[in-house]
Fold:
Amino acid sequence: MPVAPLRPPLRIAVLISGGGSNLQALMDGCATGLIPGQIVLVISNRSDAFGLERAKKYQIPTRVIDHRLFSLRASFDQMVARALEEAGAELVCLAGFMRVLTSDFVQYYAGRLLNIHPALLPAFPGIHVQRQAIEAGVRFSGATVHFVVPEVDSGPIVIQAVVPVLADDTPDTLAARILRQEHRIYPLAVRWFAQGRLRLEEGRVRVMDGEEDDLGVLVNPMGEA
Ligand code: GRF
Structure:
């Protein structure tokens, strides 16, 4: 009987700018075996990003590449790309990384560059998205993991999680509810990538072998019939 060849753990790099709670979820996913991969490098464009401390605790190599030291966006991106190449990164995960990457960079990493966004794309791209969602009066928002394309906050969607927007929500309470779901779905998306289960077909992502057919219907608020 043929035996499937064992893949070596996927080499993952994570780009951050801040707290790094999604980085934490990915590190935990690797540590528990949910993700058959290892984080080989964490890059931050800010030296005070708390995520750097999280990475150090897990003995993961870190690099600070301060975007303010580069007059050209492209030069910053080239420095990031060089660090990623040196680390042998096979997948790059943006996790609260607050810099727009050049289309050259994005195209070079096409199909191996993921981002997480705290809204149900294509609704509410950009920043202050929880405030946007509340002001629009939507009943649901959520989080999206997607492949990165040159247009900001768009690209083939891998997985989304939905949360209700409650009547008394503030941007902060909604952000916290969404963040809890981000920590669930980002590791799952990376797991599927590492398992080779994501197929890009005509600009859409297909997840092979199930985990996709758990169909749910959500209604909020539940009024009288
Ligand atoms: C998350 O909401 C992420 O979706 C957005 O920035 C936030 C980063 O949080 N892009 P953290 O740094 O992972 O805690």
User: Anything to note?
Assistant: Helices lie at 21-32, 50-57, 73-87, 103-108, 129-136, 171-194. Residues 16, 18-22, 51, 95-96, 116-118, 179, 182 surround 5-O-phosphono-beta-D-ribofuranosylamine (CB under 6 Å). The chain has two domains: 10-109, 117-225.
